[in-house]
Amino acid sequence: MSSWVPVCDYGLLLPERGVCALVDGRQVAVFRVFDGSVRAIGNLDPFSGAQVLSRGIVGSREDEPTVASPLHKQVFSLVTGVCLDQPEVVVPTYATRVCGGRVEVRRDCSGL
Amino acid sequence: MTRIVVAGYGPTAHRFVETLLERGFGGRITVIGEEPRPAYDRVALTSYLSGTGVEELSYPAPAGAVTRLGVRVTGIDRAGRTVTLADGSAEPYDVLVLATGSAPFVPPVPGAEHAFVYRTIDDLDAIRTAAKDATEGVVVGGGLLGLEAADALRGLGLRTHIVEMGPWLMPRQVDEGGGAVLRRHIEALGLSVHTGAGVQEIVTGEAGGVTGLREPDGTLIDAQLVVFSAGIRPRDELARGCGLEVGERGGVVVDAGMRTSDPAIYAIGECALAGGLVYGLAGPCFTMAEVAADRVLGGAATFDGADLSTRLKLLGVEVAQFGAMEGALDVTYTDPVGGVYKRLFISDDARTLLGGICVGDASPYGTLRPFVGKPLPAPPSDLLFSGAGADLELPGDAQVCSCNNVSAGRIRTAIADEGLTDVAGVKTCTRAGSACGSCVPMLRRLLETSGVELGTALCEHFAHSRAELFDIVRVRGIGTFSELIAAHGRGRGCDVCKPAVASILASLHNGHVLDGERAALQDTNDHFLANIQKNGTYSVVPRVPGGEITPDRLIVLGEVARDFGLYTKITGGQRIDLLGARVEQLPEIWRRLVEAGFESGHAYGKALRTVKSCVGSTWCRYGVQDSVGLAIALELRYRGLRAPHKLKSAVSGCARECAEARSKDFGIIATEQGWNLYVGGNGGFRPRHADLFAADLTTGELVTTIDRFLMYYIRTADRLQRTAAWIESIEGGLEHVRQVIVHDSLGLCAELDERMRQHVAGYEDEWRATIEDPEKLSRFVSFVNAPGVPDPSIVFERERDQIKPAVVR
Ligand code: SRM
Ligand SMILES: Cc1cc2nc3c(=O)[nH]c(=O)nc-3n(C[C@H](O)[C@H](O)[C@H](O)COP(=O)(O)OP(=O)(O)OC[C@H]3O[C@@H](n4cnc5c(N)ncnc54)[C@H](O)[C@@H]3O)c2cc1C
Ligand code: SF4
Ligand code: FES
């Protein structure tokens, strides 16, 4: 079994917005950030217990790409998964790549 | 049990009673007031003419005191410790407090009985009535109160003259140079100023009505209305009547503890002569009230005189005076073109600041007043010209709020000890800033110097406030967030600035909120055009304009809810909320609603929510206008309008107010003649009643006024600032807004009207547009790689026959 799972066409991703993909039954939030690269973290918002992080607003803190939970606005790093407002809270991150115009997510996530 | 009787029920009496109660006084308090209403804020009296209601001016009734209104105290029996009242009754006392204030001085000239004075609500009612039959008015007295009265007459539409005995206007606050600059400002507004003039007689015509005022030199000023505002006289008649010591020129003599020559009787406020002076300003009167309350409770507080500094904005002209009006040295700055005059008085060794006068630009007042009697914080010329002083460190004992006598040290301690983070907190905690408000900029600075960040910067990406960004986008014609942040910001934005800019773009350019780059800026609610719930599902709140709905449509809502398995609830906004929809269900739900002639509504966006209505004249036996018809028209007009925060409205068919219009951002109450418009109401966490903005409007006038009000709000308010907070924060307050909207003082009305025209013409049902656009529609899936699969994490339980979220982790 390949360790990369194709998710969708790159062209389907809106700049600076996210989508949610099912990867082996897990919900992964996939974002296209400002430099055009793709980042992925777990979709579960650890603060609310709801699967919603893919629907947050993408932005930056200093130079780090971030997403804010749509429920209570805690901001997470899209690079490390660390919650920048409460660094002891971390969400899993997933490696991504764009292959032949397709976005792919790696099965194994960090941290979990 | 100690029985305290207070004679007179003005602001001073109120503060006295309030302080006693706050400090736990357990005896009996009886307050006797001659006016037919409880104490009100006399300082703000003039706003009554522009629509502020009596209830708003009134102080909250002190629970724990007995008030007897509309009855005068006529005599004091000191031996029997009893006061007698005009209605023949009597009140025994252990402690009597005289708080009878003062009365306007009316010179004994022929015809004086036809003139008006300017002190009470009743006086203003009488002036307003008389002004209806007048075209010209004269105010006798060019001091602080006289100019305020003149402004009021002007506001009532009269050609207005000011007659001042002294050689220049406001002789007690400004010197000759300042008076000359002030005069030019006032004349430029169309008022005629007669200085060095007096009153020989008030001339009446054959029918008995006033026709003019004759000066001693024979000059006749035509006028049908004359107001005397030529000084005040303490109301010491009760004290005289019972043999208490009074001053040669009036005023009940008191010691530093506010006690009169009879130890059982105190005198406070404008009727008292303290240290040889009668104080005609609210601040010192409040201090007297607090001192007397402390004494009654056994304390030893003293009143040691007070700062008589003033800062005011009259007829749009800033005037300020602080400290002494003379000194060995002085520095003066005059700009006759700009209409600015500033002068500082300094001690002979050029080290100590003694006082200052400002006309046309009072900015030095806030920074320099606390330094009176202290070493100059910078070279005088810097202080006057370069606006330096913004970062001066205030000494702890410097008085910051003169109305409430609060020092810089007290405020700093409160900020540190109570962890205060904003001006509102400082106001509640220390009272500073809660009277005239002129010290608020100082409070802001003290917060800042204590390390509280109050900057107007939106977030780390923009150093600008929302209003500034609005202007940048408007003036530069910017169309996208990327352009804006590249030219005027840094980084890539965040959940604060992106939705704020999205809202600005929506206000300035029509087009769908999900078009192009704009889609990415929106909060999840706007992005999915519905309101997210705790478990990641959404609610749909179909628009029901004015709350009016046919049985058939009601059935459709029931069917939609049943077919999609949604939870239903009647909202507080006269709509029906359908909750628990998954992302992929939303377009299907909208489709069903669109087919039945509904549109989904905003329960989320910073936009118009609902215009509630009562049943109104169509059915209700009390209704005087069709409140439902108007509510529907307004809801359809303003739906979709993006704003700094949500907008709510309501229309009531009569003064019984069943639609609760006065708790709305703009509320309308029907009158026999048309509509009264109220603005700036709020429920929520800081409730505020809306202020009357304009009365008896036709429907056309009403709509134009609301159009401009909303557009001006959208243009200038801060992010997430409801209209209530906006009006309170905007310089000049509601009166400024009225000038802009009703009198077009900034020449903006045409543009505001045009923007609203564009909004109304460009409105489209954004939900319908979304289901008709395949590209937008494709985003409504739970999983990009499994579009048909519902989110398995969304699970419901049942309660009272409906679903409720069960969050599983
Ligand atoms: C549904 C409803 C409660 C209900 O079941 O009755 C409701 C529900 C919500 N209110 Fe409300 N408010 C509802 C009437 C009110 C009212 C009463 C009214 O409008 O007559 C108030 C007080 C009046 C006012 O706003 O001045 C009210 C004051 C608030 C506030 C505090 C606003 C403030 O200025 O203090 C918030 C928070 C905010 O907007 O920042 C809020 C926010 C919310 C939000 C949007 C919170 C959120 O983001 O999840 C809720 C979402 C509703 C949804 O998903 O559908 N809601 N909310 C009412 C919808 C009315 C409608 O049809 O539009
Ligand atoms: C138009 C206007 C604008 C003003 N603007 C400012 C300002 O900007 N800043 C500022 O500091 N000050 C201002 N003032 C002054 C301020 O309002 C007064 O200093 C303050 O009202 C004094 O309060 P008081 O309670 O001592 O007297 P008052 O407000 O005069 O109240 C006394 C009350 O006692 C009642 N009374 C009198 N005799 C009897 C009796 N025998 N029996 C029963 N009741 C009696 C009177 O009817 C009155 O209601 C302004 C005043 C006016 C009129
Ligand atoms: S506000 Fe007046 S018209 Fe409307 S329902 Fe109430 S009583 Fe009737
Ligand atoms: S100086 Fe008037 S409120 Fe502070």
In a nutshell, what does this entry contain?
Chain A: This is Nitrite reductase small subunit. The complex is a heterodimer of chains A (112) and B (809). Chain A is mainly β.
Provide key terms for this protein.
heterodimer; A: 112 residues; mainly beta; B: 809 residues; alpha/beta; five-stranded parallel beta sheet; 26 helices; 21% strand; globular; binds flavin-adenine dinucleotide; binds iron/sulfur cluster; binds FE2/S2 (inorganic) cluster
Describe this structure as you would to a colleague.
The complex is a heterodimer of chains A (112) and B (809). Chain A has 112 residues and is mainly β. Chain A has one domain: Rieske [2Fe-2S] iron-sulphur domain (Rieske Iron-sulfur Protein, 3-layer Sandwich), CATH 2.102.10.10. Chain A has no helices and ten strands. In chain A, the strands form three sheets. In chain A, strands 2-3-4-8 form a four-stranded antiparallel sheet, with no helix packed on it. In chain A, strands 1-10-9 form a three-stranded antiparallel sheet, with no helix packed on it. In chain A, strand 3 (26-32) and strand 4 form a beta hairpin. The radius of gyration of chain A is 13 Å and the shape is globular. Chain A starts with a strand and ends in a 6-residue tail after the last strand. The mean pLDDT of chain A is 91. Chain B has 809 residues and is of the alpha/beta class. Helix content of chain B is 31%, strand content 21%. Chain B is built from 26 helices and 38 strands. Chain B has a five-stranded parallel sheet, with no helix packed on it. Chain B has a five-stranded parallel sheet with strand order 9-16-10-11-12, covered by helices on one side. Chain B is globular and about 95 Å long. Chain B starts with a strand and ends with a strand. The mean pLDDT of chain B is 90. The A-B interface holds A 6-8, 12, 14-17, 19-22, 27, 30, 33-34, 44, 48-52, 55-63, 65-66, 68, 70-71, 73, 75 and B 460-461, 491-495, 497-499, 517, 519-525, 527-528, 532, 534-536, 778-779, 782-786, 789, 791, 793-794, 807-809. Iron/sulfur cluster binds next to loops of chain B. Chain A: Residues 4-105 form the Rieske domain. Chain A: This is Nitrite reductase small subunit. Chain A: Keywords: 2Fe-2S, Iron, Iron-sulfur, Metal-binding, Nitrate assimilation, Oxidoreductase. Chain A: It comes from Nonomuraea cavernae. Chain A: It holds the Pfam family Rieske_2.
